């Protein structure tokens, strides 16, 4: 392992035990840190079926360090296609992309990290540091101290406010309707249209994209799920507030979970899908039992390093998923952090300061690109089928 | 009853079944409306023990219309006193004030309205109207239409955004720590100090006020509860965010409920009370099993009437409780609305338009006064014991 002996007696806390946090924890452990991961959810999260497009940074743990075979974790498609609302193919090109599901990938990373130092049900609400250590406070009453803390706790990270009090979520003007449907449950003709492609339908001020991801049980085609995001404009104000008010009367700031979206909005979604989207694409949306909502907002902290504390992934910078690069960005932050630490001769504060500028720049460039992609789709109506500038990628279109 | 025949075939929806909503519903029913009340909570709210200082508008239903005896609903004290941190009396004057508890008053109003048209567990998330009626949408999937809707759904009212999209909560810079303690559970000497007064302790950038309210069982002195609000400055930013993050990891925007405040903050509260407040006053704070938090913010809608929809009470304008006039304001809005309707010859839209200006003015004047009172206490250190400008009152100090 790289730098095994660099931090033999140092300790690290990782706040947030999802993909970015687990990747960080694994890399820090390889550097010799004693690592504890604190995850706010109370139990393992098998149910989260949403899809992840695999990018090189996302899978780097498996290609370079893990004994697990990456081939066991993903599905693939051979084409990118655009269907117009009638169902006609308006663009189709060969392009290999691979996908995983959040649950499949999470379980693989957790298998490598183990559960002994993975703590469920711990929500970090604040931290302090002095010259020698950092102490994280949890709402359970627990505190934990270490030489390094990495916050990988997502778009709602309470830690971000310590790094940049001015970094607030700015609503994009549209939401993502998301869902998954068993591919095998669809009409055979629909399955044939969708099974080997990323499929888009572009309509005025909107588009939808979908692709097949692994099911929770296996990679078999029989278990696969069609996973989609449909981007739809909703003006800020009462209309947005009502859409985000769930069946219990709670108003989501970043999402409304499966099963919690008000029935009237699910009914409207299904009717709109049938009226506006290609028939095969509409089939998937209409068949979704519990579609859910992601509020698309932009936020970027102007700092990612603060003494012995680092902010990574969506906690540091989150935006719209058009580049399919959010998970890759978190992994890239983690790898760069590990590399900075491995060459810092044990000086954590210097390593973080050295690590920060390139990651801020990467955040900034990704954010600008996905904002432009979103504006093209939702407001300028220039999302042109086949335009190479619209390809997925962390470092640039297709990169 | 006044104007019994004015609206014999009209219908009204009241959203929010707390004190302001029930007062409105009773007055509308007296005008002939068929009234339905929709309350978001799922069951009767016996547990809410917080205190209400009675003002003439608050009790007007009981003094003018109800067969219930107001004397059965309140306690009273004969003095206002200021104790310094040593416990010495620095000011004391005779001043009769009466108090109820939220639960006592709520149950009395509900007894008059009845439960047949009082619907629990219905959260209104939006509404629309045309020339003839207004339709309210609930997250349950239910809709309800009527000739008039009154939103009395409190400081977090989703309806406010329809009336004034710019009306946002503005944090005051301080929070209210609240709680109740059985008077009889306190040291006898402490009981004697507190039992017949409103008691204040003023310290730099802060003050606390407390008074005895009815218990949940009876008005007997043996059942009484000491009820308090301690105003403490907390800067916006990570410190406030952490304080408002509850034991489950949820962050309150307007309150953190009893039992949900993180233990470390309750511990700090008790230690600070002992160190900073008069001994008898500190006894109450220290003895509170589940102190809770109210975030003090100011918000005022620039409109209260929108066609057939009215916004009243905290839904329209909410601020700091220094004048003890929030409940009175809601009741005053309701009475003025009923009076406007009773002289409008059945024209609801005109009645609301005619009702609005004076209530906006009342909101504005109350808001300015309580903001000034709060600034005097928390930032200017000019909350002078005995200053008549600091008296409770909806229309002015002591009025």
TrEMBL record, chains A, B:
2,6-dihydroxypyridine 3-monooxygenase substrate binding domain segment(s): 171-298
Annotated InterPro entries: DHP_3-monooxygenase, DhpH_subs-bd, FAD/NAD-bd_sf
Pfam families, sorted: FAD_binding-like, NAD_binding_8
Domain of life: Bacteria
PANTHER family referenced in this protein's UniProt entry, alphabetically: MONOOXYGENASE-LIKE (PTHR47469), OS06G0597600 PROTEIN (PTHR47469:SF2)
Protein name: 2-polyprenyl-6-methoxyphenol hydroxylase-like oxidoreductase
Source organism of this protein record: Mycolicibacterium cosmeticum
